[in-house]
Amino acid sequence: MQVLFLEGHAIVRDACRAPSLSTCTTGYNLGMTGRGRGKRWALWAAMGLALPVWVGLWFRLPQPPDPLWPAHAPGMALRTVLFFPFLEEWIFRGRLQPWLAQSFSGQWYGLGAANVLTSLLFAALHGFTHPPAAAAAVFLPSLVFGWVRDRTGSFLPAFVVHAWYNLGYFWLTSGMR
Question: What is the pTM of this model?
């Protein structure tokens, strides 16, 4: 927890050094004035990609989701929607992907090599806590998170998208637990 606090403090501190005064007055701005191209549309496009997946999942559910899932399991909701996505994005998109980008500058179908490598590792590490098919399925959303990070220059928009994806997925599958 101390590491998260210290990293959060560093983010706010660095944001307040930015040339925009409004960035400092709001604490931080989710990276939307950072480096990268197509900042706002990248975030909204990535969030919109979840909708057809959720609709497809809805039709495959054996039973309807629990509409009050966050209220029935607030601890699980906080962990799966906020805590773990923040921690994962801070590690993978905030630290690892930029580090890999220094060594691997190539592109693969419009995706940065660092994003692809980060996503492979992200999916592989999910294999320790998920069945193999579920861990492999994490690869595509991870590419989206990395793409958002590349476009915005910050891991925070990737965290927002990750939290959004987890919210929809866990809400829809809540009736299956």
Answer: 0.76
Residues 89 and 46 in one domain: yes
Whether residue 6 is found in the same domain as residue 85 = no
State whether 21 and 51 are in the same domain. no
Residue 19 C-beta-side C-alpha neighbours within 13 Å:
2
Q: Are residues 95 and 139 in the same domain?
A: yes
Per-residue pLDDT of the chain (177 residues; tens, 9 = 90+): 444 444 544 544 554 444 443 344 333 444 444 555 567 888 889 999 999 999 988 898 888 888 888 888 899 999 999 999 999 999 999 999 999 999 988 777 778 999 999 999 999 999 999 999 999 999 999 999 999 999 999 999 999 999 999 999 999 988 565
Beta carbons within 8 Å of 83's beta carbon, 6+ residues apart: none
Q: How far is CA 137 from CA 81, 88, 168, in A?
A: 18, 16, 15
